[in-house]
Amino acid sequence: MAAPSSFVAITALTWVSFVRSKHPVTISDADDVYLLFFFDCRGRRGIDPQVSDNYFGTCITGFLGKATASELLAEDGVAVAAAALQGEVRRAAENPVSGWNWLDLFSWLPQDRLVNVSGSTRFPAYEVADFGWGAPSRTELVSVNNGQVIATSAGSKAGKDQ
């Protein structure tokens, strides 16, 4: 396996930590556990018609990592999680529309065994949230999905996420 991206590495560690925090009370060794992440399709090949990179609307698709709790709780659990996620990232990059049935996932995915990673690093919160008393020093999401979501947003400085 190639070295994971920072997204894959951090998300894999988060996924394993989530499973460890719920085991053995609400997640057993044999349970399947999931990580759902979203992929921005703007400017990607393989979409017909092509969606411009500067399109402002929503153009996302979801991809799902899956493993058993015992795989993620093993000594090499972070590597197992990273491999599963890296495969989904590769699939997303090669064929973004292959994940377009992601809304169907919510009908059967057990929410107590799901990590949902989402965010919007393109929303310019620091530029648009000046209400007359200066730009904010920090912005945060108030509440999403009962606190079971990892959300990322652009930081106050270029190239930074929070």
Mean pLDDT, to the nearest integer, reads 81
What kind of sheet is the major sheet? Answer: 4 strands, mixed
CATH domain class? Alpha Beta
Q: How many structural domains are formed by the residues?
A: 1
Structure summary, number of beta strands? 4
CATH architectural designation: 2-Layer Sandwich
**How much strand?**
15-25%
Number of helices: 5
Backbone CA Rg: 17 Å
Give the CA-CA distance, first to last residue.
28 Å
Order of helices and strands: HEEHHHEHE
Multimerization state = single chain
Helix content: 25-40%
**What is the CATH homology-level superfamily?**
Chloramphenicol acetyltransferase-like domain
Short key terms for the protein model shown above:
162 residues, alpha/beta, Chloramphenicol Acetyltransferase, 5 helices, 4 strands, 19% strand, acyltransferase, CAT-like_dom_sf, transferase, acyltransferase activity, transferring groups other than amino-acyl groups, Anthocyanin 5-aromatic acyltransferase
Describe how the helices and strands are arranged.
Blueprint: H1 6-22, E1 32-40, E2 60-68, H2 69-73, H3 77-94, H4 102-105, E3 114-120, H5 125-128, E4 149-153
Parallel strand pairs: 1-3, 3-4
Antiparallel strand pairs: 1-2
Overview of the molecule:
- The chain is of the alpha/beta class and about 160 residues long.
- It has one domain (about 5-120): 2-Layer Sandwich (Chloramphenicol Acetyltransferase).
- Helices cover about 30% and strands about 20% of the residues.
- It is built from five helices and four strands; from the N terminus they run αββαααβαβ.
- The chain has helices spanning about 5-20, 70-75, 75-95, 100-105, 125-130; strands at about 30-40, 60-70, 115-120, 150-155.
- A four-stranded mixed β-sheet has the order 2-1-3-4.
- α1 crosses α3 (about 75-95).
- The longest helix has 18 residues, at about 75-95.
- The mean pLDDT is about 80.
